[in-house]
Amino acid sequence: xxxxxxxxxxxxxxxxxxxxxxxxxxxxxxxxxxxxxxxxxxxxxxxxxxxxxxxxxxxxxxxxxxxxxxxxxxxxxxxxxxxxxxxxxxxxxxxxxxxxxxxxxxxxxxxxxxxxxxxxxxxxxxxxxxxxxxxxxxxxxxxxxxxxxxxxxxxxxxxxxxxxxxxxxxxxxxxxxxxxxxxxxxxxxxxxxxxxxxxxxxxxxxxxxxxxxxxxxxxxxxxxxxxxxxxxxxxxxxxxxxxxxxxxxxxxxxxxxxxxxxxxxxxxxxxxxxxxxxxxxxxxxxxxxxxxxxxxxxxxxxxxxxxxxxxxxxxxxxxxxxxxxxxxxxxxxxxxxxxxxxxxxxxxxxxxxxxxxxxxxxxxxxxxxxxxxxxxxxxxxxxxx
Length: 385
Description:
By secondary structure, the protein is α+β, with helices and mostly antiparallel strands. It folds into three domains: about 1-165, Reverse transcriptase/Diguanylate cyclase domain (Alpha-Beta Plaits, 2-Layer Sandwich), CATH 3.30.70.270; about 175-225, 5' to 3' exonuclease, C-terminal subdomain (DNA polymerase, domain 1, Orthogonal Bundle); about 240-380, 2-Layer Sandwich (Dna Ligase, domain 1), CATH 3.30.1490.100. About 40% of the residues lie in helices and about 20% in strands. A five-stranded mixed β-sheet has the order 5-6-1-7-8, sandwiched between helices. Strands 9, 10, 11, 12 and 13 form a five-stranded antiparallel β-sheet that branches. α4 (about 75-90) packs across α5 (about 120-135), α10 (about 205-215) packs across α11 (about 215-225) and α12 runs antiparallel to α13 (about 305-320). The chain is globular. The N and C termini lie far apart (about 55 Å). Residues about 340-345 and about 380-385 have low confidence and may be disordered.
């Protein structure tokens, strides 16, 4: 059976939420992100994009490109609440949906043409989302996730389209290779150096040559250029918490050792958060004494997946929690109140340097394993673990 996959993407989501709260911002150039010059852009309005402003750009550069832009400090809690409103509308209508990020959804509508018409149903859903949430949203319907996502990119801002079955390849053919999802600046530059600038040209490159140049990613590139994507829509289930703990072989009162273990647990868990595309708003530290008495302490914090923010909070909680001189046999940490979040780290708090460092470390971990790189503070001989 021919698949029908709908992609929905909220337009300039953070900016749109701010405009709901303050209509004066409508039509004006707006940048969401850290207020200092060392911060980065988390989101920006279409009015700023014509000046070259883009997400993840250093704030100093963004202000230089668009000096009249209004810079607003982000409010992740508010964005998560509005994302939940959109999710509720979709959940009440869709047979199968996947929440890919805080502002992006895939729906599998395969088979619905027999009853209503997939595109007609999609248009009605989009209207309902806009009416009930007040947020602009774009959509595209196609035979797979790849083409529907690329279609939404063409429909933006606040538009809709259908890529009919059989027209996928000619639809994406004239687009630049940089429009392919997951093709970053580095890969695009490498393709440009090979004389490959459009998806049509990429489609004509022998897959073996792409494999030589890009490894296994070369075959994935060729498949995408040929509009091939069998990735299923994964039914959405909200994970409520993420936790880790360590029981020691020998009970200890070594505070430096306890801090190191806690830092390592926090660092590993924060990496898992970012891999899942999630943020946490509550951290809990647990210790178990040698007499098996277990105590915990938790703290709410702005939504984040930042190593440093979470580590500082974890150490603070441990310092308040450990007020007895008894030996400790177990230490643990838990992140709860999780939300889907496209920013991999707290872009409203971090400097561009901190963002780049964290992303670079994550890239190394994904390629060489989670133990390939770690913060020195969490590195100690774990003879007691």
